[in-house]
UniProtKB/TrEMBL annotation:
Belongs to the CutC family. Pfam families: CutC. Its main location: cytoplasm. This is PF03932 family protein CutC. It is found in: Cytoplasm. Keywords: Cytoplasm. The keyword Repeat does not apply. SUPFAM superfamilies: CutC-like. HAMAP family: CutC. InterPro entries: CutC-like, CutC-like_dom_sf.
Amino acid sequence: MKLEVCANSYQSAKNAQDAGAHRVELCQELSIGGITPSYGLIKQVIENLKIKTFVLIRPRSGNFVYSEEEFQIMKNDIQLCKDLGCYGIVSGVLNSDGTIDVKRTKELVELSKPLPFTFHRAFDEVKNPIETLEQLIDLGVERVLTSGQKKAAQEGLDLLRQLNEIADGRITILAGGGIYASNASKFKAIGLQEIHASSSVRINQANSMFAMPQTVSDITNIKAILDAI
């Protein structure tokens, strides 16, 4: 079983590599669900680390319905990631009615080639996950990151199992959301091949009127999950 670490900084990505994780999804601002990391962060990770690096392409927090300007930003960021030598892309677009925006998602998948494409947790907001899964397969998406449409993936085990059976090797079901060493084996038990976790801990920071909780992916936590699977 493979572990993808959701890395919100260079240190998190380095810790993931040092702990033996299989790859990272690089992003920033996990407190709002993650957004596209800066050019400088992507470049630093690609040039200095060897771990396979997927990059989140999400121009802002909130929903996954984007304006034309926001969509253009996403396409620009994908091209930058390709130019920098990233290993894969994580993204996706929805319509306001809770369906996948097939046209735009296809455009992102095609632009990302030859890099593999992961459809992110926008999947957890679609009205018909089974139909959407088939659409993603048709689009050539390599994997879908999902909690089984629940706040925590452990609560979505039934749907995750169903999705994995329907996928039948045509697309990878990547379980994510509240996965720790204590429950990681449950996802392996239902036949999943990959899980996604931030494995983060809060770190100290100086007092500041602008201070927000700061987290970093932790080597000990990552190793514990790897031991569990």
